[in-house]
Each structure stands twice: as structure tokens, then as C-alpha cells.
Amino acid sequence: MQIFNPINLLTGILSILLLASSCQKDDPVVYEVNPQDILSPTAGKIKEKSPEQFVAVMYANLFGTSISVSDQVEVERLLRSTGDKRLTWELIVSSYMNDPNVQLPDNLIMQQDLDGFVVETYNRFYFRPPSQIELEWWRDYLTNHPNVSTELVYLAFATSDEYFFY
Amino acid sequence: MNRREFVKKAGLTAGLSLASPYIMKNGLFARGAMSSADHVVLVMFAGGVRQQESVLQRYLTDSQGLTGSIYEGNIMYNLLNGQAPQDKIVYGLDPSVGPQGSLPIPAILSSSLQSQGILFPEVTAAGTGHYSGLVTLLTGSRSVTQGLRNRPRNPTIFEYARKHANLGATDVWMVGNRIGNSLPLLNYSDHPDYGVEYGANFIAPDVTFGSEGEEHIKNAKSYHPEEDLGPVNAMQNFLNRSFNRTGSDFGGVRNTEDEKYQLRLFFEEMFAKKASNTISHPPVVINNDMRAVGYTCEVLKWFKPKVTVVNLDSVDGCHANFTGYLRSLHRADHAVGHLWNTIQTQIPEMADNTCLVVCPEHGRNLDPNSILDQNDWLAYDHSDLNATRIFSMVAGPGIDQNLVVGSESNPIGDISDIVLTMAEVLGIKLQVIQAGLTSSSQSLLDRI
Asked: So what's the pLDDT on residue B222?
């Protein structure tokens, strides 16, 4: 005859409770960090602009208006007439900087609102906002180089590699 | 080893080591493989030149049915020895009173280039097309058919020079008389071992400094290299580091920052000189060939390049106007005379230190087409065997003088020889031969 053993009963109950608790779902842990896209903000830009596209976009960026067909043809011919196209491009941009109709932000406005200027410049030339690292670099650079004008910043953007792509 | 054996073996070893660079792959010794000048200038002359009116000096007797010695003569007396024609002079300048073209342009050189160098009067062209001819002139290869709108498949002399003589982009230049005919594609090839990394700087002055340049780059700001361009470069470096691609720059060559600064100054000076009418143009400036030569002189003065190529092609008007062709030929000769004179008298670093090579890309037909000009003279295209007949000329230090190699009945030389000739002058002939892409050609100096 089997004798009732309370220790076995207690062990059985504890096992059942343990099993039941181990199957319970955890509550999701929230660390209060916003989801971030791990791709580079420039990852989608893989196509190079044609000279025609490049000229048209640049002219619109600097003058706020579209370039005439005759000017576009002239610039395209000019690029074909030289071996160092990048240098020619830099000369074209710097020549346009001398044009009274070029739309450059005031240097004072840049200094008063560096973040706003940087964001606006990225959107204007790259059609994207700056990343946090980029924003911090510019904030630091422009603060430490107060003599750098909006013109020089625009020149750097308009002759940079990313500007050649879309 | 005794002393006698040691001296003998040491001498033999030294001799072999000195001679080895000159032993060609086929075992033959290459003649004159020493560099004879630090600079070489090639004139691609000048859009299809008929042998009969150029090196054969037959003027109107072998084209328009005229007979008699008064209709024969030399209308290229800066390049060639020989007296000018005496009658029916149409190739010169227009006098205020008298027949048009009746005033020949005075010679610039006191002694012709022929008398200063070697003339190869009967050379074989690669074909009868402009672009394939120019490509062969610049690559030394006639093994491929080269279509327009494509870069050369084999390396150009620019790339050979930059790679094997370790030259910068501003050491090698091509000046185009225009941007048509795919000329801007000739400053480097598609070859995987060479290419844009070794390409030449290029300008087509009629556009670069023409209305297009006036409108879009003349007013370029003169940024200070440190105060302005320093920050621009710093910002640009950051922007470029943040982007994981490098653009092709629309296929452009890349100069160093120092070279770019020099180029900016050069461009600035060209616009200033143009405005003050002080570009080093030939005394007579009538067509864009002559303007191209004027700007070539400016390039030479500023950069003293090791390799310079200038293209002339106004002679190609011969398709429809024989009189115009004669005038263009006479002017092209004038332009080359001016180029050589400028090198010798105005650029001390290049005087007596430059080799000049002149070669047309092809000739013109034996028989005319049916187009008559203002003098009722027939025009000539370029498509037959006569159009594969050209001449070539080499002059400079270390080059024999007043020597003629070959004749109408004894052709010597090939258009593809030009690259190895230039390579020989630059001291890189062996490296170019070893690249294995100029198989059938040899230096003209080795054909003497």
C-alpha cells in the first residue's frame, strides 16, 4: 500500500507553478531611443547627373530661376572644350558668384542661425537634411571660422562629389 | 680572378647594362634611343592635305589641268624648301586693289623646317577618315577601326608620357581648334592600364575663350589660394568624405590643387590678353587654326609642357572650295612657322630643347569631285588610295638637318610611327614598345 507523501505533493505543485510562470510573456522593454535608419543618408544617390542636368539644377540653386536654353548649351559646350571639367565647373560657379542676381544668404543671418543655415543649405544642394554628425561638424567649423562666408560654403557644396549625383 | 679578368668582366657587365635599354624585343638595336629634347610638339596638319599641292609643290598643275612651271611651286615655304608659284596667286592676303588672295604671306622662318630637320615626303596614312587618322597619330596603333564619339582604345602619347616619364597633367597638353569631330575625346584613351589618370589637359580656345568662356567663366572670382580656397577645400573634403562615391567629373582629367591654381591664373591671363589683343597669335590671324596656334603658344609660354599637340583642320574646306583649300594650306604653314619661331625666340626653356613633329592625318583624292569654286576650280574629297599618301617632318636638337628620307616612288614611314618618334625624343621609347600596343610601327628616326 502506497503511503501519501506531502513532500511529493509540494514538489508537484511547485513544479506546476514554475512551468506556468516560465511560459509567461515578458513585457516589451522600451529604452526611449527613436528608431534610426542605419543606411547612410546618401545611399540612394547612385546616378551621376548629366552635364545638362547638372547645369540646370545648379543654376536653379544659385539664381532661383531656370537657366535659358542658350545658356545651357553654352555651358555644355564650355565643359566639352576643357580637359579638367571639375576646374571648369568651379570657374563657372565662381563666375556666377559675381553675378548680382545670385541668391546668397546674408553672412549675418548664417552666424545668427547656424543650424538653420546648414539645414537649408543641405536641402538646397543635396535635397536632404544633414545627419547629426554633419550638423555638428558644420556647427563646429563655422563657429571656429567666422570669416567663412555663405559664398564659400555654397562654392564648396556646388563643387562637391555628392552634388554630381542624384 | 686576376686583375686583367676582373677589368674585362667588369667592362663587359657595364657595357651590357648600358646597352640593354636599347635592345628591342625583336633583338635589333634601336638607333638614337637617347632623349634629344625635353619637349616635343606635334602639329596634326591640317585636315587632309593632298601631296600634290604640299610636298610635291605642283600647285595648280596636278589638280586643275594647268600646265607650265609658272603654275607650279611651293605655297608652304615655312615648312618646305622651294620657290613659290609665279602665276595665278590666290592663296595669299586680299589687297585693297587687285585680285583676291594675290598677296602671299611673308615667310616667318629664315630657313625652312625642312632645312632644319628631316622630311619624310612619302608616308603611308592609316586610312582616309579624319578621326581614325587622328587616333592613329596619337596612339601609334592602326590595328582598330575607331569610330567617332569613342575615346581611343589604345593609349595616347599623353598617357605614355605621363605614366612612363612620371609627368603631371599640366605637363601634357592638347589644343583643339574646335570641339567638333570628337576632338575633346582625344586627350586620353579607354585603355584599362592607362586612361583618364594619365590624360592630358585640353582646351579648344575658340570655345574656352570664345563667347561661351566670356559669358560663363571670364568673370570667375580670383579666390585667394589660402584665405578663400583653403576653407573651400576643407569644407569640400568633409563633404566628399561623407559621400561614398567619386564622380567621373564628366570624364575630365584631374589636376592637383597646385596645377588647378596655375590653370586658374592662366585662364585669367588669357581673357586679359584677349581683351588687350596681345595673345601670341601669328602675324596673320584669319581662321580658328591660327587662333589655336596662338593659344598653343600661350600654353607653351605658361606651362612649358613636355608634350603638346595642336590640331589644325581648315584645309578640309577642300571638299567644296579648292581656292579656300590653298589659302588654308598657306595659312597653316604660316601658323606652324609662327609656332616654331615663338618656341625659339620667346620661350628660353624650350628654345633648342624642343622637337617639332608635323604630320597630316591623311591626304586627299587623286581625282576631283564636281564642285567648282569662284575660280572654276574643282574640289577634292578624301576616299581613295591617293588620300592615304601623306608627308611627315621632324626637327629639333639631335635631329639630322636638311635630310630627305624616301620619295614618291620609295615611301618610307607610316603615320603610326609618330608616337614612337615622340616617345624616342622623350626617352620612353622602350617602355612604349614594351606596352605592346604599337606592334607594326617604329620611330621615324629608326627608319633613316
From this structure: 84
pLDDT for A8 equals 78
Q: ∠B190-B192-B193 over CA atoms, to 5°?
A: 120
Task: Tell me the pLDDT tens digit for each residue of A1-50.
Answer: 455 677 777 787 877 776 666 655 667 777 777 766 666 777 788 888 88
Identify which of B281, B233, B280, B275 has the alpha carbon closest to the alpha carbon of residue B257: B233
Whole-number pLDDT of residue B9: 52
Q: Are β-strands B117-124 and B403-404 bridged in parallel, bridged antiparallel, or unpaired?
A: parallel
Domain count of the fold of chain B: 1
- How many structural domains is chain A composed of? 1
The CATH number of the domain holding residue B125 is 3.40.720.10
- B252: distance to nearest CA of chain A, Å? 5
Residue B39 lies in a domain: yes
B19 is a domain residue: no
Under an 8 A CB cutoff, do B236 and A71 touch? no
Residue A93: give the domain boundaries: 51-164
Strand partners, B356: B41, B395
Strand order in the sheet with B172-175: B201-203, B172-175, B307-311, B39-44, B354-359, B389-395, B117-124, B403-404
Nearest to B267 by CA among A89, A162, A61, A3: A89
- Identify the closest residue of chain B to A49 by CA–CA distance: B250
CATH number of the domain residue A87 falls in: 1.10.3130
List of E strands, B324-388: 354-359
Q: Dihedral sign for Cα B282, B285, B290, B296, please.
A: positive
Look at B217 and A88 and tell me if their CB atoms are within 8 Å: yes
The residue segments making up the domain with residue B286 are 30-245+252-446
Query: Rounded to an integer, what distance in angstroms lies between the CA atom of residue A53 and that of residue A69?
Result: 12
Complex-level ipTM: 0.88
Give strand pairing partners of B389: B124
Please report how many Cα atoms fall inside a 13 Å half-sphere around the Cα of residue B46, on the Cβ side.
27
Distance CA A5, CA B229 (A): 92
Nearest Cα neighbor of B306 from B228, B417, B422 is B422
Amino acid B272: pLDDT: 97
Asked whether residue B4 is domain-assigned, the answer is no
Is B20 inside a domain boundary? no
First CA to last CA distance, chain A? 87
Identify all chain A residues contacting B292, using CB atoms and an 8 Å cutoff: none
